[in-house]
Write a structure and sequence with these properties.
Mean pLDDT: 91
Number of strands: 8
Structural class: alpha/beta
Number of helices: 7
Helix content: 25-40%
Length: 253
């Protein structure tokens, strides 16, 4: 349905960032390629999402399709690494990304998997739709030109009882060491992917969410375990996930 969103001329898309990620499109689904780190992060993200979805809608933790009947929007979807699991969980999924190359790769991969996902090369501020039950945005806010405006765009897309799930690196010495000095320096992450100065701390992002009319309902860190790889953790020094809903909204049930 139509909404009173920001006009198309207002956008938080950084053209240089879009171009950078567009060059990775063809290799996005290669678990050993330029997006290998995202493949390693995805199971942790999905674990958090599944728990958050069950808690928010008080669903059956044993259900294979807990998002049946729900509309999901993944903002900054890349080539669909998160959209496809959301579709398999039963959601009607829309994925948007600034890079046309990513959208083309996402469409091709989804078709090969027999999945119907609505992919669009557009920014969230000019999407022109609202009423999404679930809005996700993973490792995206640190790449936009105006984080506060970006969060307002996410809030505008959310249904009244909707759930927002967001992840982003924390701006700490640990994240600089792990993601830039080592990650990019050793070639595990493509050089130029991150600008450490644009990372947001939890203390910085929460007031922006409040200003967008949202309230945070949960936090979790993502840590690197030498034996297990990425795991959910109470420690937020490297990366963190959060859930939020419209301020003042009551949960179902």
């Amino acid at each position: 349905m139509a909404s009173n969103v920001a006009p198309e001329s207002i956008t938080t898309i950084d053209p240089a960032e879009a171009a950078h990620f567009g060059t990775m499109a063809a290799d996005w689904w290669n678990p050993k390629g330029s997006s290998a780190m995202l493949h390693k992060l995805n199971p942790v993200r999905l674990s958090y999402i599944r728990h958050a979805v069950d808690a928010h809608w008080r669903g059956d933790a044993k259900s294979l399709r807990p998002l049946t009947g729900k509309r999901a929007l993944d903002v900054g979807c890349g080539a669909g690494l998160l959209c496809e699991p959301l579709a398999r969980m039963g959601a009607q999924v829309t994925g948007i990304d600034a890079a046309h190359e990513n959208i083309a790769a996402a469409q091709a991969h989804a078709a090969g998997q027999g999945l119907s996902i609505d992919y669009r090369a557009v920014g969230v501020e000019s999407l022109g739709e609202t009423g999404f039950d679930l809005v996700t945005s993973m490792e995206v806010i640190e790449h936009v030109t105006d984080p506060a405006l970006f969060l307002r765009g996410l809030a505008d897309a959310l249904a009244p009882d909707g759930l927002l799930i967001l992840s982003t690196p924390n701006r700490t010495p640990l994240s600089r060491l792990a993601m830039i000095t080592l990650g990019e320096g050793l070639g595990q992450i493509p050089r130029g992917t991150h600008d450490w100065s644009k990372f947001l701390t939890p203390e910085e992002i929460e007031p922006m969410l409040v200003a967008a009319g949202l309230e945070v309902t949960g936090w979790s860190g993502i840590a690197l375990d030498p034996a297990k790889g990425f795991v959910l953790s109470e420690k937020k020094g490297l990366n963190y996930l959060l859930t939020a809903k419209r301020a003042g909204e009551l949960k179902d049930g």
